[in-house]
Amino acid sequence: MVGLKPSDVPPPLGVKVLSAGAAACIADLVTFPLDTAKVRLQIQGENAVTGVAQGIRYRGVFGTISTMVQTEGPRALYNGLVAGLQRQMAFASIRIGLYDTVKSFYTRGKDNPNVGIRILAGCTTGAMAVSIAQPTDVVKVRFQAQMNLQGVARRYNGTMQAYRQIFHQEGLRGLWKGTLPNITRNALVNCTELVSYDLIKEAILRHRLMSDNLPCHFVSAFGAGFITTVIASPVDVVKTRYMNSPPGQYSSAINCAWTMLTKEGPTAFYKGFVPSFLRLGSWNVVMFVSFEQLKRAMMISRKNMENDCDPF
């Protein structure tokens, strides 16, 4: 997949899984305020309907960040970071780390898989990752959505307390709330992100526009982020609204989407598009570059350890 030349020895599965999770955590640390701004913009119409903090309005990604800092303090931009890092270690390590392995499984070890196989592999690992990591995403979104304002009750005061409270009040279904739209969203994100990155990078190298180095990875990752945002944004908004909703507000994810369409119009599905794009574009750049470097470092370290253990 990413960054490997034909002559390179493919890294073992453990290296890919660990480096993918670590790289995703690095990317989250850098881009988390953009993700929080995206969540606030996506739920803004819902807040107005339910009467939560009616006097606060968010306008654009940087306006949202500025408003949050002024009204809640800079720490609010990192609400849910702990759950976010937990999510990436459980989520990205599967969806990205297992992508090559699943792709090889579908092709039975053959090289140069077609686009259909790549899409299938991306959808598979994306769905697998959501099935396991969904509770961390629910907690992350709810922390990002809650406001740190006087007079506004906080739903949760800590990450582990949030897991326990959701379980006691809503049961296991609460922790896996929104799994279907999240599987749909992340299957779309994963296959679009990884496949478009592969295809853009291959096209750049085939036409010799760039060599296989940092600028090539940057352009490929940023392009993949834009394509992914366009395709996945409607499902992402529904997922965020549904996971953040209190019990009984929506009967299902489909009901949530229908309510948005009838009350706010079709443009509601692209609320938070700019922060989504800025976040995915920058997240992809940081993640893929970190992924390449971590993989390379782990492979060098592994080779050095093998040489040290070999007496001959």
TrEMBL record:
PROSITE patterns per UniProt: SOLCAR
Function field: Antiporter that exports dicarboxylate intermediates of the Krebs cycle in exchange for phosphate plus a proton across the inner membrane of mitochondria, a process driven by mitochondrial motive force with an overall impact on glycolysis, glutaminolysis and glutathione-dependent redox balance. Continuous export of oxaloacetate and related four-carbon dicarboxylates from mitochondrial matrix into the cytosol negatively regulates the oxidation of acetyl-CoA substrates via the Krebs cycle, lowering the ATP/ADP ratio and reactive oxygen species (ROS) production.
Annotated compartments: Mitochondrion inner membrane
Protein name: Dicarboxylate carrier UCP2
SUPFAM superfamilies: Mitochondrial carrier
InterPro entries: MCP, MCP_dom_sf, MCP_transmembrane, Mito_Metabolite_Transporter
GO biological process annotation, one example: transmembrane transport
Membrane topology annotation: Multi-pass membrane protein
Lineage of origin: Eukaryota, Metazoa, Chordata, Craniata, Vertebrata
Predominant subcellular localization, coarse grouping: mitochondrion
A GO-annotated cellular component: mitochondrial inner membrane
Keyword annotations of the record: Membrane, Mitochondrion, Mitochondrion inner membrane, Repeat, Transmembrane, Transmembrane helix, Transport
Pfam families according to UniProt: Mito_carr
Annotated Solcar repeat ranges: 15-105, 113-203, 212-297
Family classification: Belongs to the mitochondrial carrier (TC 2.A.29) family.
Catalytic activity: (S)-malate(out) = (S)-malate(in); oxaloacetate(out) + phosphate(in) + H(+)(in) = oxaloacetate(in) + phosphate(out) + H(+)(out); chloride(in) = chloride(out); phosphate(in) = phosphate(out)
Keyword Transmembrane applies: yes
Cytoplasm recorded as keyword: no
Assembly: Homotetramer. Adopts an asymmetrical dimer of dimers functional form.
